[in-house]
Amino acid sequence: MTSTSGDAAGPALPAEPAIDEQVAIYQREFPEVDPQVETIVSALSRLNRRMHVAYSRQLAALGITNAEWEVLKALVLAGKPYRLGPGDLAKRLGLTPAAMTHRVDRMVGDGLVTRARDETNRVRVNIELTGEGRTKWLDAMRMAATFEADVLQDLGGDERGTLAGILTRMLVRVESDQPDAGGRLVDLDQDDQSEGTTSG
Amino acid sequence: MTSTSGDAAGPALPAEPAIDEQVAIYQREFPEVDPQVETIVSALSRLNRRMHVAYSRQLAALGITNAEWEVLKALVLAGKPYRLGPGDLAKRLGLTPAAMTHRVDRMVGDGLVTRARDETNRVRVNIELTGEGRTKWLDAMRMAATFEADVLQDLGGDERGTLAGILTRMLVRVESDQPDAGGRLVDLDQDDQSEGTTSG
DNA sequence: ACCCTAAAGTTCGATGCTAAACACTACATG
DNA sequence: CATGTAGTGTTTAGCATCGAACTTTAGGGT
After folding, report:
1. Is the Cβ of A158 closer than 8 Å to some Cβ of chain B?
2. Residues B38, B195: contact at Cβ < 8 Å?
3. pLDDT along chain B (200 residues), means of 10
4. Which residue, among A20, A21, A47, would best test binding to B if mutated, counting the most B CBs under 10 Å from its CB?
5. How many CB atoms lie within 10 A of CB B187?
6. Protein residue with the closest CA to the C1' atom of nucleotide C12
7. Where is the HTH marR-type domain (chains A, B) (predicted)?
């Protein structure tokens, strides 16, 4: 069978192959591939994707979009007074300044942030979290924490430590190849079954 | 300094906080957070993002976009004769059929795939890999394999096995919450430092 | 044979993003 | 002070995507 149904004779969903099947196909089509590496990369990407979908759904229930939440997070991470320029925001979120201009427009309209020219340097603009924005962030944070705890539920403390360590080392490796990479160029399309390599 | 530079007195890049700093801030702003969970989730997301950027760059050197590569992968994974309908492709890539129509248009123009109505069922359309498409896929695959090996370079065989196992279990957990989730709703924005929770 | 429903793909209108052009401010230099 | 240059944010044009409406075909029930 092509996909997950395999044998159950169900409605035969043409969904996506399981990770194992995917790796097997890659081995057949491209023998030089390392199955273990491919498994890791595929799982990483698919996991990321699924979590993203879950976040989107739950945030929608809160009345905010994923895009808005990104901005809220960036502002909170900036620390009090939860204030950042559009340019900084754009860099941190991996967007162009132009996109950030529009995104902030919407968020100002929704009352999540305010926009004001800087007093001391009139080239600059300050985007600042409102009380409502901070509340929304908190709500989303609580929700996310619950979900994340659920995802990691089957892992023991040792495993969590190991996982955190391994991921951190991988991150160091990637970042060393990628000078500073504030993050332009982020296609960030989708990959469903193909994450084998793409979204990593 | 706000971010990574910290003390080096460099050009003071306003990049993004290191994972550790990020988690520390979250602890301060939202004490209920579990630092270990947050570290894992943040690292996962950031790793994914960085890898995605790297793929995009390298694919550009090959003359194809990330979007195109997704389609090539899906077709190869479908097995010979490397043929799938627009609808199936859309499901697997997490796009709407409308988007797939346009994406296929471009790829037909580039000679990577062909589009033809199905002989036996004239509602259906077959998108099929061309020789050039398959060649491009192979080139990209080789490139990706090299990069992925580099990312995992610091990990021993044991660690790789452990990692693969843990990720697979996490994936199972997420997918159980998320019925089948072919994948609509995928906002898939960006998150830079904020991946703390969002892109997962 | 004739509907009726479901399924597949495309077309249409709106949205959000990128890249490039533009406007404005600060600062250094003469 | 006048001017050049760099930095910051917005505007514009084009593109990819989504959601919804539409067209065409297949298959079932009468």
Report:
1. no
2. no
3. 34 66 95 96 93 92 95 95 96 96 97 95 96 96 95 94 96 80 39 34
4. A47
5. 20
6. B98
7. 37-172
B177 touches chain A (CB under 8 A): yes
- Residue B145: exposure state from Cβ atoms within 10 A (0-12, 13-18, ≥19): buried
Q: Considering only CB atoms, which chain B residues are within 8 Å of A76?
A: 25, 29
List of residues 6+ apart from B62 with CB closer than 8 A: B136, B139, B140, B143
Q: How far is B34 from chain A (nearest CA, A)?
A: 8
**What is the Cα–Cα distance from A166 to A152, expressed in whole angstroms?**
16
Q: Do B48 and A51 touch (CB under 8 A)?
A: no
- List, as ranges, residues 36-65 from B with C-beta within 8 Å of A: 36-41, 43-57, 65
Neighbours of B154 (CB within 10 A): 12
Q: What confidence category does residue A180 fall into, taking pLDDT thresholds of 50, 70 and 90?
A: low
Cross-strand bridge partners of residue B129: B113
> Is A13 in contact with B73 (Cβ distance < 8 A)?
no
Tokens at B36, concatenated: 């270990």
CB contact at 8 A, A174 and B54:
yes
Nearest chain B residue to A88, by CA: B14
Quote the CA–CA distance of A18 and A6 in Å, as a whole number.
10
Residue closest to A72 by CA, chosen among A140, A125, A143: A140
Asked if A194's CB is within 8 angstroms of B70's CB, the reply is yes
Q: B52: Cβ–Cβ under 8 A, 6 or more apart, which residues? A: A186, A187, A188, A198, A199, A200, B66
pLDDT, tens digit (0-9, with 9 covering 90-100), for A58-111: 999 999 999 999 999 999 999 989 999 999 999 999 999 999 999 999 999 999
Asked if the C-beta of A169 comes within 8 angstroms of chain B's C-beta atoms, the answer is yes
